[in-house]
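wait is this the right file?? whatever heres the structure
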């Protein structure tokens, strides 16, 4: 019987283990999990912090009992420290001490860890002082403990996806929020024209937004925290939350001698094989094949981790399934806006002649009450007309997330921009138009730039 050892209990590791059990119930994969929270939704943390999901236990996709019933062996609160690829063992440490776990096939799903920017004070101040990083359930508990003391204000450093979600969450609790971002505009994964719409939404909800500002120092001051930044930025606050992104957690993998690739992530091929025999890897710790560009990139996304984990689990049993690739499709809710993107923007479209056109279209027929505009930016190749990317901003009730999925599907299958106009999409006046907003946008692109 094949012995499969999986390191990591989040999206990639759980998906790998479950896929193994789907294919061969005689194989009981062992999952080594560093904490006590396997299969918890890290993406759901902001909604627990906001109070919209009151019980943190609800963030578990599956309980421990569910996972064990599904055929997974769990070793919780167990940290893997070293891989010996010759003996095919992993050294782990738990409450009983140090042990060697043997494997025939190993899957690494160690995920990512928060980036700690060079801010003076964040290494000496911590949760007890009101300074937080946010990535794990333990981080969540320390933050909610701080918030239980009913702070009046917070400074959030970083205006990416998690930073914006946490601004929303803190405002839901009635906390005054200052948002600080080094880059010129918030949410840099979309073009600045759309980022400006997000900034306006933040300010409409009384968020004090400072872009082009770099935080240099955090210090204790008169029982509170004082944040210092560029261009004379100073704020006195009760809580500081630093969420400036993540980088791949490869420390364990490096003990096996695996090669690292894009942005220091584990180099894997499309079968999720690392460069050392009998070792697979998946999720936020690995580089990701970009389906459109045909190259490797780094895209730490839960959706991608689930798919890669299934591929790794299947191939650990001897299959030859290939990862189809990612397009970086994402969506985020910021107060009453939904912002979505897929594919590439002009600056990322290496090997193409990208042209982007922006259109504003109603989410449903204007004569039916409540119609709202959706801002759509379509990127296509000027030579072939191929659809390369899309960015959408609209009201949270305007099905922005499903409309970007239409465009992601079109890119996945290599369609041209004008091909989207021929899709047979659904229509009823309260929900859409005979010519859907995505088709209005693609038609405008072809009118401007040809087929």
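ok assuming it is, sequence goes like this
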């Amino acid at each position: 019987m094949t012995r499969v050892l999986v390191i990591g209990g989040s999206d990639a590791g759980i998906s790998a283990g479950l896929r193994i059990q789907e294919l061969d119930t005689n194989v009981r994969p062992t999952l080594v999990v560093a904490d006590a929270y396997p299969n918890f939704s890290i993406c759901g943390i902001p909604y627990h912090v906001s109070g919209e999901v009151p019980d943190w236990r609800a963030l578990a996709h599956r309980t421990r009992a569910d996972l064990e019933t599904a055929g997974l062996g769990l070793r919780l609160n167990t940290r893997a420290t070293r891989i010996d690829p010759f003996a095919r063992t992993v050294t782990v440490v738990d409450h009983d001490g140090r042990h060697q776990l043997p494997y025939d096939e190993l899957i690494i799903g160690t995920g990512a860890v928060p980036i700690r920017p060079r801010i003076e004070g964040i290494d000496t101040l911590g949760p007890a002082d009101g300074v937080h990083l946010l990535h794990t359930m333990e981080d969540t508990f320390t933050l909610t403990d701080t918030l239980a003391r009913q702070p009046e204000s917070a400074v959030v450093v970083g205006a990416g996806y998690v930073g914006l979600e946490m601004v929303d969450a803190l405002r839901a609790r009635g906390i005054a929020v200052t948002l600080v971002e080094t880059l010129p505009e918030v949410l840099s994964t979309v073009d600045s024209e759309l980022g400006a719409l997000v900034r306006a939404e933040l300010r409409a909800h009384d968020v004090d937004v400072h872009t082009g500002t770099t935080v240099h120092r955090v210090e204790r001051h008169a029982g509170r925290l004082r944040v210092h930044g560029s261009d004379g930025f100073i704020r006195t606050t009760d809580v500081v939350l630093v969420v400036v992104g993540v980088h791949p957690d490869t420390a364990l993998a490096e003990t096996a001698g695996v090669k690292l690739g894009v942005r220091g992530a584990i180099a894997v091929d499309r079968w999720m094989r690392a460069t050392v025999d009998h070792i697979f890897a998946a999720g936020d710790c690995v580089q990701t094949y970009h389906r459109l560009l045909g190259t490797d990139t780094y895209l730490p996304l839960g959706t991608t981790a689930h798919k890669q984990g299934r591929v790794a689990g299947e191939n650990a049993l001897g299959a030859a399934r290939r990862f189809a690739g990612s397009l970086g499709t994402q969506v985020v809710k910021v107060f009453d806006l939904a912002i979505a993107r897929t594919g590439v923007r002009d600056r990322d479209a290496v090997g193409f002649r990208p042209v982007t056109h922006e259109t504003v279209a109603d989410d449903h027929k204007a004569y039916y009450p409540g119609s709202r505009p959706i801002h759509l930016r379509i990127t296509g190749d000027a030579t072939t007309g191929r659809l390369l990317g899309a960015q959408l901003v609209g009201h949270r009730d305007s099905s922005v997330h499903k409309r970007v999925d239409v465009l992601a599907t079109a890119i996945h299958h290599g369609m041209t921009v004008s091909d989207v106009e021929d899709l047979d999409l659904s229509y009823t006046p309260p929900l859409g138009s005979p010519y859907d907003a995505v088709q209005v946008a693609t038609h405008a692109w072809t009118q401007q730039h040809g087929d």
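The chain has a mean pLDDT of 96. so i think its the right one actually
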